[in-house]
Structures are given as structure tokens and as C-alpha cells.
């Protein structure tokens, strides 16, 4: 996995969640708190999620094959999508079920100091993990806001870890609030209410992750800044006079496909055009190093044809051509 994959943040989160999961489960055994059980399952699910991200990063490094000529970069998106499913089902739905059962059949909390102590410990540990994720993200976030970073990052690991850690911290505060209210009022229903809130929080985070990783799986184009650099690198003003139309597609977080129809002069020789295409590819790779696969099609510029843009019928997933029409 590349540096931008956030391996350090993933490992930090994995270590923290494993330790916290064990502590929470021990606290549940002593206190009979449903919030603690939901939180222990949440931490266990988060640990599994971080393991999935590491596996996805490792599998994405495999070399291209004849069957998969563009490589396996999108494995990272697939495993990130699996994380959202695990967080939704194992984390969120389990917490909702436990919260409902606790409200319906409340049980008195025992040995209250166990859940309170473990929750305080967990908040401290998760804070360190969250701090690592923020620090790692700041190295690649640039000037983007946190919302823009989560929504538009092409590498899924850091946004996933950020949202998981944020959800874990808020969930711990909710669990602490539920346990605290149950102790103050003597009514353990509040413990169940806290568990329900944790479940709702996890489901909301899972839905956000699912929507963002689904977009990456479908295939996203290069960002605006990268697109501008590619366009500037393509045209040399001599042989390549303009871009007729262009498409880009992320094959993985650090792999970009560039396909463009470029205008050349009608009286240029094939040798000159071929040399100009080679030079344009070199300029693109220098301007945007992640542009690994580049296809350039030379053509004579016609304003009427250029106005039509790329042929929508040729878009993958579009209507197949009708053989009977020829």
C-alpha cells in the first residue's frame, strides 16, 4: 500500500480497537451493561474492518494479468465497501437489537465502576488513534475541508479510519452517558437508550461510507486540479493543437487512465504525429505521475463534430450497437 493508503493510521486503529474490545467485553461480563456489549462488538467489528483494509491494500499490489490487464488497484475500493457492510450489520444492527432488548427487559447494572473505568480508558485510546488518523490525513488532505476530503478522496483507507474513529469516540461518549444516567436515576432503561443511539450512529456512518465507496467502485474521474494539469500537458501548440474531448478514470487510488481525442494538423506526417503523441504522454506523466495508462487518438479538428463531444453510445454500459442497423 502506498503512503497515502494510511497504513500507519490503520495499524494504530487496529491495535487500539483490539485492546478496547477485550476491555469492554470484560466490563460487560462484570456489569451486565448492554451499552458495553454493543461497544465491545463495535470495537471487534472495527478491528475486523481494519484487517480488511490491510488485506485489500496488500491484494491491490498484485501485478496485472491477461485476465485483469489494468491490475488490481480497485481491490482497495472493494474491501472498503465490505467495511461499510460490516459496520452496518455487525455494529449498527446488533446495537439496535441490544438496545431494544435492554429497554424491553431492563437489567440492573452491577459493578458500575467496570464500565465507567473501561469507557474512560477507551476514550483515551481512541483519541490517540483518532489523532494518528488526523495527522496522516493532513499530509494528503491539502487545502480541502474535512468534508471534501472524505467525499472526494480517491484512497479510501484514511476516510474510512477517520469516520470509524470519530464514530467510536462519539459512541463511547453515548455509552458513558447511558451508563451514567442509569446509575444516577437507578433506571437501567437509559443504558438501552444509549445502546440505541450507538446503533443509529454506526448505521449513519456505514451509509456514508457505502455511498462514497460505491462511487469509487463505479469509477471516478480525475480531480479538477489533475484534469487541468493533464489538459495543459497535452497541448503543445505545434503538432497537438487542441483537445477535442477527454475522459479520465481512476483504476485505483494511485492509477489513472487518460483517454483523449486530440487535434493535429491535417498536413502533418504519421511520423511527426507519433512523435508528438509520445511527447504528450511523457508530459502528462510528468505533470500527473499517477497517469499510468494513456490512450491518445489523433484526429482533424472539426467544430461541428467537437461540439457533439464523446459518443454517448460508446460509453461502457450504454446501449449496444444494433447489428441489423448495418
What overall form do the CA principal axes indicate?
A: elongated
Spatial order of the strands in the main sheet? 1-2-3
Oligomerization state of this entry?
single chain
Structural class: mainly alpha
Number of discrete helical segments: 10
**Rg, nearest Å:** 26 Å
| Portion in beta strands | 5-15%
**Largest sheet, strands/sense/barrel:** 3 strands, mixed
Low-confidence stretches: 1-5
Rounded to the nearest angstrom, the distance between the terminal CA atoms is 48 Å
Task: Tell me, rounded to a whole number, the average pLDDT.
Answer: 84
Description:
The chain has ten helices and three strands. The model is unreliable at 1-5 (pLDDT under 50). The radius of gyration is 26 Å and the shape is elongated. Helix 2 runs parallel beside helix 7 (189-218) and helix 8 (224-234) packs antiparallel against helix 9 (270-287). The chain has 326 residues and is mostly helical. Strands 1-2-3 form a three-stranded mixed β-sheet. A hairpin with a 2-residue loop joins strand 1 (240-252) and strand 2 (255-264).
Q: How are the SSEs placed, and which strands pair?
A:
Blueprint: H1 7-31, H2 34-59, H3 75-104, H4 113-141, H5 146-152, H6 157-185, H7 189-218, H8 224-234, E1 240-252, E2 255-264, H9 270-287, E3 291-299, H10 303-308
Parallel strand pairs: 2-3
Antiparallel strand pairs: 1-2
Helix pairs in contact: 1-2, 1-4, 1-6, 2-3, 2-6, 2-7, 3-7, 4-6, 6-7, 8-9
Amino acid at each position: 500500500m502506498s503512503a497515502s493508503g494510511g497504513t500507519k493510521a490503520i495499524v494504530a486503529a487496529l491495535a487500539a480497537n483490539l485492546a478496547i474490545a477485550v476491555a469492554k467485553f470484560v466490563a460487560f461480563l462484570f456489569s451486565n451493561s448492554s451499552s458495553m456489549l454493543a461497544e465491545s462488538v463495535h470495537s471487534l467489528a472495527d478491528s475486523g474492518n481494519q484487517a480488511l483494509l490491510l488485506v485489500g491494500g496488500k491484494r491491490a499490489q498484485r501485478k496485472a494479468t491477461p485476465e485483469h490487464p489494468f491490475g488490481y488497484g480497485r481491490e482497495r475500493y472493494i474491501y472498503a465497501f465490505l467495511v461499510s457492510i460490516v459496520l452496518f450489520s455487525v455494529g449498527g444492527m446488533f446495537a439496535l437489537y441490544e438496545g431494544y432488548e435492554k429497554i424491553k427487559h431492563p437489567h440492573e447494572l452491577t459493578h458500575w465502576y467496570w464500565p465507567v473505568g473501561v469507557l474512560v480508558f477507551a476514550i483515551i485510546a481512541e483519541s490517540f488513534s483518532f489523532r494518528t488518523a488526523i495527522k496522516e490525513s493532513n499530509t494528503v488532505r491539502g487545502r480541502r475541508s474535512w468534508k471534501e476530503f472524505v467525499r472526494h478522496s480517491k484512497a479510501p483507507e484514511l476516510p474510512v479510519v477517520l469516520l470509524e474513529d470519530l464514530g467510536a469516540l462519539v459512541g463511547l461518549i453515548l455509552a458513558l452517558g447511558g451508563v451514567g444516567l442509569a446509575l444516577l436515576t437507578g433506571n437501567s432503561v437509559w443504558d438501552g437508550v444509549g445502546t440505541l443511539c450507538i446503533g443509529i450512529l454506526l448505521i449513519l456512518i456505514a451509509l456514508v461510507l457505502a455511498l462514497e465507496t460505491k462511487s469509487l467502485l463505479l469509477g471516478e474521474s480525475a480531480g479538477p486540479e489533475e484534469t487541468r494539469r493533464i489538459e495543459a500537458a497535452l497541448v503543445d501548440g505545434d503538432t497537438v493543437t487542441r483537445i477535442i474531448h477527454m475522459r479520465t478514470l481512476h483504476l485505483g487510488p494511485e492509477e489513472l487512465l487518460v483517454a483523449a481525442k486530440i487535434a493535429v494538423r491535417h498536413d502533418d506526417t504519421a511520423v511527426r504525429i507519433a512523435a508528438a503523441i509520445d511527447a504528450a504522454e511523457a508530459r502528462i506523466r510528468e505533470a500527473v505521475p499517477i497517469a499510468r495508462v494513456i490512450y491518445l487518438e489523433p484526429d482533424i479538428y472539426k467544430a461541428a463534430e467537437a461540439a457533439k463531444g464523446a459518443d454517448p453510445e460508446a460509453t461502457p454500459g450504454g446501449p449496444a450497437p444494433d447489428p441489423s442497423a448495418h
